[in-house]
Automatic annotation (TrEMBL):
Pfam families tied to this protein: PTS_EIIC (PF02378)
Native source organism of the sequence: Breznakia blatticola
GO MF annotation terms: carbohydrate:proton symporter activity; protein-N(PI)-phosphohistidine-sugar phosphotransferase activity; protein-phosphocysteine-sugar phosphotransferase activity
Location, primary (coarse class): membrane
Example of a GO cellular component annotation carried by this entry: plasma membrane
GO biological process, one term: phosphoenolpyruvate-dependent sugar phosphotransferase system
Residue stretches spanning the membrane: 20-38, 59-80, 107-125, 137-160, 180-201, 253-273, 280-299, 319-338
Listed name of the protein: PTS system IIC component (Fru family)
Amino acid sequence: MKNNKIWKDIQKAFNTGVSYMLPSVVVGGILLAIALSTGTATDEGMKITSPFMQNLNDLGAAGFAMMIPLLSGYIVYSLAGKPGIAPGMILGYVANNPIGESQVKTGFLGAMILGVAVGYFVRWCKTWKVPNTIKTIMPILIVPICTVLVLGLIYIYVIAVPIGVFMDWLVEVLGNMQGGNAILLGAIIGAMTAVDMGGPINKTATAFTLALMAEGIYAPNGAHRIAVAIPPLAMGISTFIDRKKYTKDDKDLGISAFFMGLIGITEGAIPFAVKDMKRVLPAIIIGSAVGGALGMMNSVEALVPHGGLIILPVVNGKLWYVLAMLIGVAVSVAILHFTKPNVEEIEEVK
């Protein structure tokens, strides 16, 4: 019974984190979509030439930079109240940016884990018996400093180090596969792209494909750039098709996610994954793996380090680039259709 209560508390915390994060996702996604739609594809990605559009792009990037700290901060708020917001946001920022000797970044998954850890740590801090003179400075001085120091150092020295070692191993494994089974390599790149949507596994796939691009090998990048668009496109289309399976906020976010998919911003699917990880993550991972495999199988090459339909002019194998993306999206949407319950059914279970 106690474990069930803890799990319900964590689920509620994730939903709270998502609800506070949503405006940041929408603002960031829409402004980035508008700005990038005016850009031109170059060897370094999409280049924006208009100063005004560059300013819009910077504002959108700021929205995205705040997204993960807000998620983590309000996960903590749900679990431990106001004293946890600042340390939760600080450690959410830490999770979403490279840190430590190996410069590890764990993205939204790391931020969720840290959010829960901070929440329960702050709860424990609030049980301390302290003199009244110290009690007044607990929430603004002692609790935030203790929390950031203790959990931040544990994250850097205990959690981040093995993740960095794992990422290095993953790059080596992918390097050994290159030139072997193209379909399997494409599927693995696609799955890695979707599994943490901008986190370390996604970034490992990016680093691997960029390294091959430097050697004039563009097919793995094609698989990766097909896959980056599939999670947000799938979530957007799923909210359009299966209206009963999503809340009003989800449907509004689906529009933003759809446009983010068109310009290759995988993070548009993160809020959906946080709220319903056991259904959303398998669906988008499988769909992205299918898209990546189809791209490699048909020798699709993306000549720039960006994704989505926006880079179609600089893709070799345009037809299969689009088809692989659409088929991957269709697979994800179909899985969601058969696995996600209607919102009314979820409310009845509660």
